[in-house]
Amino acid sequence: MQIDERYFMDNSMQKNSIDDVICQDEKVLWRDKPNATSYVLANMFKMLPIALIWLIFDGTFIFFIANGMISGGIPTNILWFIIPFFLLHLMPVWMWIGKTIKAVREVRNIEYAITDKRIIIRSGVIGVDFKFINYTEIDSVNIKVGLIDRIFHVGDIYINSLINAGVLWDIKTPYKLGNYLQRVTLDIKSDIHYPNAVRPDSNPGYQTNYSKNPFDDK
């Protein structure tokens, strides 16, 4: 049996760019990457207070134990117990270092795209992962701006869905993009559920005023 090598050259595992997953009739409306500095710092500061407290606490014990060994008050053979103990007890510090390294490596692979069909989120640390969020799946779009986000003039856009949620981290002009994304979502949902061909020129049910406030006590 003859094997066509072109099949493996065009295998989906080789597709690691957003351009590779864009459909032929799909139009990219917006595309960007997160602010790398803001993304890394935000991940660093999430566990930094706990890591510092843990490091100071354990560092104090290590300092007194080391002084005791130098003065001869503590036997040096206790190192066989002390070293493994503190290597394990400093786990929050190792986790913080690992989270920081992960953020540095991950931010290189993160990219976002909003098309006329879906939202594409590219991410990954070692390999490259893709998340596709269809507009019909979106329940709401929320915007959050933290302290570090304010410093770098960026923000996070949370796309909420029971099926496939996602976050656009550290985006420039988050409020403008969030409003734009909500409008696109509403427009495309309307086109899918109520195509233009069957829409009336006017809809008497839309923006109807209440004759009485429904929240007033009866």
Brief write-up:
With about 220 residues, the protein is of the alpha+beta class.
Written overview of the protein:
- The chain has 218 residues and is of the alpha+beta class.
- Helices cover 45% and strands 19% of the residues.
- It is built from seven helices and seven strands.
- It has helices spanning 5-9, 18-21, 36-71, 79-89, 91-106, 147-152, 174-193; strands spanning 28-32, 111-115, 118-123, 129-134, 140-144, 154-160, 166-172.
- The strands form two sheets. It has a four-stranded antiparallel beta sheet, with no helix packed on it. Strands 5-6-7 form a three-stranded antiparallel beta sheet.
- β6 (154-160) and β7 form a beta hairpin.
- α3 (36-71) packs antiparallel against α5.
- The model is unreliable at 1-14 (pLDDT under 50).
Net shape? elongated
List the strand order in the largest sheet: 1-2-3-4
What is the count of β-strands? 7
Biggest sheet layout = 4 strands, antiparallel
The secondary-structure element order is HHEHHHEEEEHEEH
Topology at a glance:
Blueprint lengths: L4 H5 L8 H4 L6 E5 L3 H36 L7 H11 L1 H16 L4 E5 L2 E6 L5 E6 L5 E5 L2 H6 L1 E7 L5 E7 L1 H20 L25
Antiparallel strand pairs: 1-2, 2-3, 3-4, 5-6, 6-7
Helix pairs in contact: 3-5
